[in-house]
Amino acid sequence: MVYLFHFELPVNEATWTCFATAYRPYLKCLTLSEVDALAVSVMHLSRAYDHVHHEATTDDTGVAVHIGSAGETADGGDDVIDKVTRPAGPITTFLSFFYVNTKKAEITMPSGKRDLPSIEDNHDGTVSLKYGPKEEGLHELFVKYNGENVQGSPFKFHVDSITSGHITAYGPGLTHGVSGEPSDFTIYTKGAGAGGLSLAVEGPSKAEISCHDNKDGTISVTYLPTAPGEYRISVKFGDKHIKGSPYNSKVTGEGRKRNQISVGSCSEVSLPGKVLDKDFRLLNASIQAPSGLEEPCFLKRLPNGNLGISFTPREIGQHVVSVKKMGQHIVNSPFKITVGEREVGDAKKVKVTGNGLKEGKTQVENLFTVDTRSAGYGGLSLSIEGPSKAEIQCKDNEDGTLNISYRPTEPGYYIVNLKFADHHVDGSPFTVKVTGEGSNCQREKIERKREAVPLTEVGSNCKLTFKMPGVLPYDLSATVTSPGSITEDAEINEIEDGLYAVHFVPKELGVHTVSVRYNEVHIPGSPFQFTVGPLNDGGAHRVHAGGSGLERGEQGQPCEFNVWTREAGPGSLAISVEGPSKAEIDFKDRKDGSCYVSYVVNEPGEYRIGIKFNDQHIPDSPYKLFMSPAMGDAHKLEIAQFPTSGVQADYPAQFMVRKNGAVGQLDAKVVSPSGTEDDCFIQSIDQDMYSVRFMPRDNGVHNIHVKFNGVHIPGSPYRLKVGKGDADPAAVHATGSGLGDVKTGHKTDFIVDTCNAGAGTLAVTIDGPSKVSMDCTEVEEGYKVRYTPLVPGEYYISLKYNSYHIVGSPFKVVCTGEDLAERGPQETSSVVVETVHKVSKSHKGGSGVVLPHFKSNASLVTSKGMGLKKAYIGKQNLFSISAGDAGNNILFVGIYGPKGPCEEIFIKHMKQNNYQVSYIVRERGEYILLVKWGDDHIPGSPFKIEA
Predict the structure, then answer these.
(1) How confident is the model at residue 58, as a pLDDT?
(2) How many CA atoms lie within 13 A of 568 on its CB side?
(3) CA 859, 861, 867 angle in degrees (round to 5)?
(4) What number of H helices and E strands is found in the chain?
(5) What was the pLDDT predicted at 19?
């Protein structure tokens, strides 16, 4: 659209400020920066012209401002904006025309050039786009409304330049699709003559192809991809590719729900000889196959007290088992074990029967049976992906057979992946067509482009914002830990009602840890990663979200949460809400790498919140929550005497609930840090007061759910710290080769350093194209996690401490090498460890204080002064040290003489790492002067001095 602006304004900057503020909503075609730029133009023109035009009317009460489309009169139509109150002072008006192009539709051609289609208003709420292509190949059509892409934009289409008589292909299935849903395209064959037409679809999964001859010179082709990824579509005529073939189609998993279970079936072997090591938790074991493949394996205490191992046999022959304690082999390790042919897991020998892998019905159990009796030892993993997250039930008959059932809630195509010993069984993945009534699930989605946030530098003012309605500012606290492990308090201020900002000034480049606590408990999303300088890596795994709207909600009331995308770089953020009713979603971009989302639903029930960045789910997405009915009388209830400190594990705690006249049923439960739930004991004290009593079993943050008539009362669930509560995810760090680039078939590891992080629950999860053998054992500085990937690809390692991601989690690991197992959809492997309190080795028995990891270079320290060359007995001998360019560290000065150390050394810091040193010697002779910056000598040290 082309807009015409007609202004009559006084020469007064306050008038424009008033106009720009009051009428920005009317100028939807402009960005805020364009409106501000327009303001500058108006002011320059108003100063340039001092004559008065009378084309528009003004009176003594104000100034007329008109806006209309090109071709209209400036003072006509319904688009006249109300008058702006006239400021005091003389009026100088002018008439000027501004033409502002707002691109509602744009096409990116294969060459990268941009072109504009024509837009026609159909006057019925729709518009038509017409475009004459200038190039052949893949085009992208961007359609925007109010500056935002409409749903589905950008749309992709192919343009061909071949004339009649040649075979061409067109349709959406050549460029994009959704896993588990049919993708379509059309082949035009009119006038092509005789010849054989062949089709092939290659990609991450097999894809069933069906063709239909339309008898009009066209053929309709449908293929069904069963996994997301890139697919290669080949269309050949007479053994030659047609123009444009092979086509690349990007298939996403959008809208797909996945569920999976794993059933262990490992071989258990007793280690040769008597192995009775009492310190079982300090042992770890790995097994090496004849081919050299080495994997961690699990140690077990057998009934006779001897040690045994549990592992999945993959090869025939002699295996070597290494059992180590704190890195050293135990007695008789390594052990040798022979694996026979019948013990090796063979997926081809697994038998699957039942109609549930051919067709299914919604809302009922669909059954099939798996028989592994002839297949050896191996773990069975099952995943079902489709329009709904089907519940899976598995009954182990303990005779080598399993009865499996799944219950989908939505009709459509489902993909069933069934693997044994990390290989697909025959026929897997199975495509199952499920029919029946759906749950009438409603889905609403918004998508927003996220721009890269400007880099922050050392010394700049850094800001991290979050919204937490209903909290008191003085209950919030924040700290920032630098890459050198220096922790300092940070300032928090309230920008507006419920919106807070953490301010700090970094002194180093690198990843900083920002911890934000409410009543001494980390808020959702904390600890945050904040990179000063260039970002190391970006993507969906660097996006985090948190807030009450991802945990609970109430029908008809706004449910709110924060999304932080700063560390992910630029990209597309998509947010979907799915459940019994459609959601109204509101999105506010704070322009600092964070945004705020609010949504309202009108029906209670179970909802799923999906958050994707560049078509990939962010960590912990999708979120599952229950939307409670309207609060009703629940809002009348109050909590009294709620314990805020001093609560201990295995000791009862209680609080009071005042009903304030509400009529109904009160219930309460406590959820421990590990996720286990326990009911609270509720006793009526009088007609209006209840006592709620509970017994926490673990240390850590518990959630107390208090409901009235099935609805959370205000503030529920309440967070309560039990025990010392010293488990701090912000103090946990992970390092090691297992977090970098790895190779298939090679055992790798990383260390999770929990020194001074307190005792807590460490949960390690590895998501990737295959399951991994993994174990976690205690070491001096924390815990060592070992794993062996079997399939190349991207793995994501999540490390949570007391249910909070540590900084950097999830870590993205790229694995290269050959396929040692069959690739499938994302597989998950996990291990959970209850940690013990640890302090760093260098401070055992001390105060537990940990020195920062200083980043410095002693070679850049300079020194000067007579005191470095000659000393005078009984007098102050001076020299100076300048370490301004050497980074941060501690200055050490020592002098040793003929009869021991010198009598006095005085060091004075003169700011900015400049020091003045003076010393006094009492004896004649030769002295040695040592000057160190941290652990390293400065240039010239040690100095030789004559006194």
Answers:
(1) 34
(2) 29
(3) 120
(4) 2, 83
(5) 45
* Interior/surface letters 122-159, b for 16+ CB within 10 angstroms, e for the rest: eeeeeeeeeeebeeeebbbbbbeeeeeeeeebebebbb
What pLDDT does residue 40 have? 42
User: What is the rounded distance in angstroms from the CA atom of residue 22 to the CA atom of residue 24?
Assistant: 6
Strands (E), 282-426: 283-288, 294-301, 307-311, 317-325, 328-329, 335-339, 351-353, 359-361, 366-371, 380-386, 391-396, 401-407, 412-420, 423-424
Contact 676, 695 (CB under 8 A): no
How many other C-beta atoms lie within 10 A of the C-beta of residue 298?
17
Could you give the CA distance from residue 816 to residue 794 in angstroms, rounded to a whole number?
A: 9
Q: Is residue 617 classed exposed, middle or buried when 0-12, 13-18 and 19+ CB atoms within 10 A define those classes?
A: middle
- Distance from C-alpha of 467 to C-alpha of 494, rounded to nearest angstrom: 9
The label of the residue with tokens 């008006």 reads 93
H or E element that contains 156: strand 155-159
Residue 160 pLDDT grade (very low, low, confident, very high; cuts 50, 70, 90): low
Q: Which two tokens stand for residue 783?
A: 């815990």
Per residue in 616-655, pLDDT tens? 889 998 898 888 887 778 888 888 888 877 788 888 888 9
Q: Answer yes or no: are the C-beta atoms of 927 and 871 closer than 8 Å.
A: yes
Mean local confidence (pLDDT), 863-875: 89
Q: Is the peptide bond before 580 cis (omega within 30 degrees of 0)?
A: no
* CA 7 – CA 21 distance, rounded (Å): 16
Mean pLDDT of 214-235: 85
Number of residues written out for the chain: 947
Token representation of residue 707: 């409901």
What predicted TM-score, i.e. pTM, was given to this entire model? 0.64
Please check whether residue 672 is in contact with residue 698, taking contact to mean a CB–CB distance below 8 angstroms: yes
CB 572 within 8 A of CB 613: yes
The answer to whether 529 touches 602, Cβ cutoff 8 Å, is no
Query: Which tokens go with 351?
Result: 């038998």
In this structure, the number of other CB atoms found within 10 A of the CB of residue 120 comes to 11
Helix 13-23 vs helix 32-48: angle between axes, to the nearest 10 degrees? 150
pLDDT greater than 70 at residue 27: no
Give the pLDDT score at 8. Answer: 40
Q: Which amino acid type is present at position 231?
A: Y
Structure tokens at 945: 């001095």
pLDDT reported for residue 104: 75
Classify 597 in phi/psi space as left (phi over 0), alpha (psi -120 to 50) or beta.
beta
Say if strands 616-617 and 605-613 run parallel, antiparallel, or are unpaired.
antiparallel
How open is the CA angle 565-570-571, to the nearest 5 degrees? Answer: 90
Residue 925: which of 902, 941, 904, 906 has the closest Cα? 902
CB contact at 8 A, 6 and 56: yes
